[in-house]
Amino acid sequence: MLRRRFILTGLVSIGAVTALLATASLWGQTSPGAPPTSPPVVAEPSPTAPDDLADTGTPGGTTDPGTPPTNPPTTDPGTPTAPVVQVRPPVRPPTSPPANPPVSPPSNPPASPPSGTTTDPLAVAPAAARIGPRTIVSLTFDDSNAGLVAGAGILANNGLKATYYTNSGLLGQPGKLTLAQLRAIAAQGNEVGGHTVTHPDLITLPADEVKRQVCNDRFQLAQWGFSVRNFAYPFATTNAGVEQIVADCGYNSARMLGDIRSRFGCGGCAYAETTPPADPFATKALDEFDRTWRLQDLKNGVTNAEQHGGGWVQFTFHDICTTSCDELAITQTMLNDFASWLKTRSLTFNTDVRTVGDVIGGAVKPVIMGPAAPPPGSGNNVVNPGLETMANGVPACWSQASWGTNNAAYSLVNPGHTGSVASRIVITNYTSGEGKIIPTLDLGGCAPSVLEGHQYSMRGWYTSTANTQFAVYLRTTTGGWVYWTSSPWFGAASAYTLASWTTPAIPPGYTGISFGLSLFSVGVLTTDDYELFDVASAPPVVPPAPPTQVVNPSLETMSNGVPACWTSAGWGDNNATFSVVNPGRTGNVAGQISITNYVSGEGKLIPTLDLGTCAPSVTTGHTYQLNGWYKSSAVTQFAVYLRTTAGAWQYWTSSPWFGAASQYTQASWTTPAIPAGFTGISFGLNIFSTGTIVTDDYSMTDVTPAAPPQPLAVQAAPPAQPAEAPAVAPVVTDPPAATPAQDPPVTEQPPASPGGGEGSAPPVEPAPDPAPAVEPAVPPAP
């Protein structure tokens, strides 16, 4: 049985989201995801990298906003399918020269294991005093987690050395090793190996992206001065094509997982790998350590080999902890106990601890770069923008990126805005964070490339029961992902609506972008048809019709001779009369009210005061823009009513006056925040003097101000760049930077209602006949 690590919230598509977002999940599964240590990514929000965005090893890792999943989220592909492990002959050395000229390894490599020598690297003193068959133990540590520093100290205290499989794109990110720490570990005599740039599932990627992930990781580590000879597959998944690429990139071996017999599985397997291994590019190892292991399991991994002819036993760890430990972390106490046991065991038994490089041997080969990422184009730079191309049942090149405390569930719906597919996210239980889909946080196969100093127009079509916004992640020059910023909010929309926003200029040190519309409250969000254009060549955005929540806004639909869902309403001492006139401002119908004898009160036309069929719904804390077109011989104003949670209606407030107008004129006014305890609204332009008013084309739009940038879906801020890396201008601070200056800052939670005045709870007034309540005897002055 093969045990693999799933650590990201990703939609796993053709490109697995990297170790920056949150925990991986398949479409249709709930995936709240932990904020990525990195998302975008991403989650473990760096957008969270995706299944490894959050590299809980998104898209594991996207706190978004997950990360984003720079997460990502952390801020991510879904859980990888069972790895393809086949019996095959060893991979041959590269058969053709690399596309890019090789670069010689550093002339003065750090204290990584030496390259191959003519002597046996495993040679030890005569074993006359030791018993048992020759048994070699290798301790390996994956994913570059910060806790490995403590583990290296424990091993050094016991005179042991290990191999550290490193994701170069994650160094310096929150929860990960810094370059200085990795150098200190290597200086203790430990080996540094490769583990891809961002920890994707390689068998889900196109060949060019696999080459970038494998070759560029080794290239970057070599640039930092490490001699890198051996590799470990993320998620322990591989196939013949991936193995050949690993060999072509200059590695001498590559480690699998779960193919050595233990109580955790692989019952028919051997108790150790052979030396040399039958296939150096699929070396066998025990299952990865997780919290179900006990100290005796670690010891049994060694003694089982000793009792069955010896051989090579590889242990795989991911993190070191003290008391608060995640699923894949080993406590410092247990690691120390195991290391002490290994140290003393070598005094009696023919058993030694060696690095992978000691066991495999071989020279350090020249390093090469993978294919360059596709350059930005003049058209839409999003790959698979309509989500129509599928890979393993999910949209290719897209990943889920969740972070925070919520139960975001992902699915595909039919039809889409165009074509047959759209993405849907549902949250029914929300405390914090968000859910979203984003282009997979990779090195160029899926995530669009961008140019320093350029601005980009991002667009996407959506329907939603709640506000949404773009969460945006950037790729560093070393391949890591960081959360960058978020757009203003876009209001709820029952019909497909275009969200469009232009980014600030891309700062120095970044080469790629990923973004997606997010859901950050209870609700349902459906998205489709994403676009990304350089503003220099972007086609104009066709403004959508203003979103309206008013039923029958133009009064065209009639019921029993009157506009459906509308009611004439008046109060006071006057002789208001109501009629329908033709034509209207648009269409054939407008509403007319005339008063020829006036003492007090008013007349108006408003949406029927019901429980939701006609009267629009509203959300506590939100503000709404009320619009209506009118012609009038006298001043007018909006009169506004609210529906309580119990279904009763009350007068709330009135707008300022709008002057008389002989031609159709638009009246527009933004309400205060809706106070607590109210769920519906009704409003209309009134006349409160002798005269005639004609009204038409009402609309209402949620205009709650934009939220500030979210917490990371992938990570809290751009990673600290190694000294040798290109300088990167700061992108966000911790906490994230405020929303662009042109948008008023607000808190992510709906603001409290203003105290007193028109923002306070409306007074209880007697209900009129038909619906409106009795209002003040004199309408408020402007």
Structure described in brief:
The chain has 782 residues and is mainly beta. It contains seven helices and 33 strands. Strand 29 and strand 30 form a beta hairpin.
Topology of helices and strands:
Blueprint: E1 131-142, H1 148-157, E2 163-166, H2 179-187, E3 191-194, H3 207-223, E4 230-232, H4 240-248, E5 253-255, H5 295-306, E6 311-317, E7 319-321, E8 329-331, H6 332-348, E9 349-353, H7 356-360, E10 390-391, E11 394-395, E12 398-400, E13 409-413, E14 422-427, E15 435-439, E16 456-464, E17 468-476, E18 481-486, E19 493-502, E20 510-519, E21 523-534, E22 558-559, E23 562-563, E24 566-571, E25 577-581, E26 590-595, E27 602-607, E28 624-632, E29 636-644, E30 649-654, E31 661-670, E32 678-687, E33 691-702
Parallel strand pairs: 1-2, 1-6, 1-9, 2-3, 4-5, 7-8
Antiparallel strand pairs: 10-11, 12-15, 13-14, 14-21, 15-20, 16-19, 16-21, 17-18, 17-20, 22-23, 24-27, 25-26, 26-33, 27-32, 28-31, 28-33, 29-30, 29-32
